[in-house]
Task: structure prediction
Amino acid sequence: MSLDERKIRIEKLEKIRAEKINPYPAKYDKKVSLKKAFESKLGTKVKTAGRLMTFRDMGKLCFCHLMDVSQKMQIALQEDKIGEEKYKWFVKNLDMGDFIGVEGEIFKTHKGEISILVTNYELLAKALRPLPEKWHGLTDEELKLRKRYLDFIANPELKELFYRKAKFWQTMRDFMLSEGFVEVETPVLETTAGGADAEPFITHHNALDMDVYLRISTGELWQKRLMVAGFEKTFEIGRQFRNEGMSREHLQDYTQMECYQAYADYQEMMSLMEKMYKKVIKEVYNKMEFEINGFMVDFNKKWVVIDYVEKIKSDFDLDVTKATKEALAKKLKELKIDFDPNLSKARLIDVLWKQVRKTISGPAFLVGHPVEVSPLAKRDPKDPLKVQRFQIILAGSEMGNGYSELNDPLDQAERFKEQAKMRELGDKEAQMYDQDFIEALESGMPPTAGFGVSERLFSFLENKTMRECQIFPLMKPDK
Result:
């Protein structure tokens, strides 16, 4: 945009104000959407509004297109119908990008296009910057994300993605409510960041004069406290924050659903979540087969069960439950996988597993996780080196995580201590020791299963990056 063009528009704005016309009125009595107007019978009188998207003055006849949230529609002004003064004011003072309200009659042009023959109009908002051209305007991907509002205008079909996203979460919410879960809200600011392996953001609470953390899970340890308190089915859909790297499937702030059910184990939660995934996917997309990140995924197929330890043993001839840290490091070197040699055994196991995960199309349930990588899950009584945990795997990535929750306070305290040692050695993602949570467990928590799924699932179903699927992703300030 040239500065001259903005200057010209500001000059128009000043002249409009000089005529005692308010270029930014507070409201307009819009009777119908453009879609409703377009579907009206010829001769119907309508009153609608939208943004001017095209502008073609042919002397005494002017054709424009208006766009609102429903669609784009042509309007026409004829000087002999609307009057010379109104016609010239329209052509002289209005530009593409302006919002206007119009009244008129539905008619069909000689080319057969359903249009509104304008009998009256009102300026609703003067745009001081021109719109980007659809094909030549916003082509830079970073610029599209930075100026998302312009991308929506140039590519209105993009709005459909976010309507689907809203439906995605609403369908999930409706499902949980139908299963008897109560929706709760838990703290976003915490004195101890817990419930996940992640580095938290730190901020300062002025009133209490103390540093606090933005939560790294959607209330995991809080919802478990609710199980202690006597609630039996809870869930929360909310924002969580992790101060870690960015990638196709990782962002620093995003939405997640977490749920907890008393008297259930991880296998019961597996069945419930398979039912939920299928329900949400069917209602949002009306299909069950997807191409995701190079994989073909059919959600109607039987969801296979993969054992974490056995799969690594099969692929790499290594039992990670018995392997030493040195043996794990040696195997990673053999596979030419980059890793930090200072990582704990748990982190080395995780690095190795992620190489295996890349090859799994899913949908699959991953079970049999080593206890080292699952500090909040209940041990498997058949094999105390493993836990009762499951992850949903789709297109080579984790797409949900759940387990039979650890409700033995002494076992939980010991695992927190191991996590604390990892933090002392520099692992910023290791979990913090939460004494208050231990005390809550000591009051007694019933057998409980929990699960969490983030908007990564939505981005995979769309076959886009998580960043593209956020309506306003965080961007560095434009210099």
User: Anything to note?
Assistant: DSSP finds 15 helices and 20 strands in the chain. The chain has two domains: 3-131, 157-462. The longest strand covers residues 45-57.
